[in-house]
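Feature request, filed as a ticket because there's no other form

It would be nice if the structure record came with a short human-readable summary line next to the tokens. Right now we just get the raw output. Example of a typical job, pasted below so the devs can see what we mean:
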Amino acid sequence: MGVNVLFGFLLPWVFGAFLYTKDKQLVIKTIPIGIIISFFMNIKGCRYWVLKPRMKRKQYRSIYPLNLGYFPVVASLMIYWNQQSFLSRSTGIILFTVLSSIAELLAVAVGKLEYKNRWNIYKTLLTYFIPYSLIELYYGRVKA
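Raw output as currently delivered:
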């Protein structure tokens, strides 16, 4: 569980703190919705993947550090990058979807994450693309 806290919560918040110095309003407005979407996706998805360490009960707790760190911070970084980039927002969403899926594939390769019930990387791409798109739409409405 220490690895989950280190790489899923503490390290992402180093980047989150940096982002906060650049754009406080973006962080304040996107992190809460990112956390909500992350919890929803991962509680619903816990029957399709297992993040180690395995727990006898309430397996979804092993992903709490990522729900509170990695997922919302990366979504906020995506929005910040989209604002600063010359590329379209759609391209930014696709780029972050692919990069997040590659990171997840690495977790599968090192044995930190296990897919089950016919889950695959293509479905993983959707589970990143949809939330990133929702957060981008949400931020587009509340940034003013």
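Something like this underneath would help us a lot:
Residues 2-142 form one domain.
The chain has one domain: 2-142.
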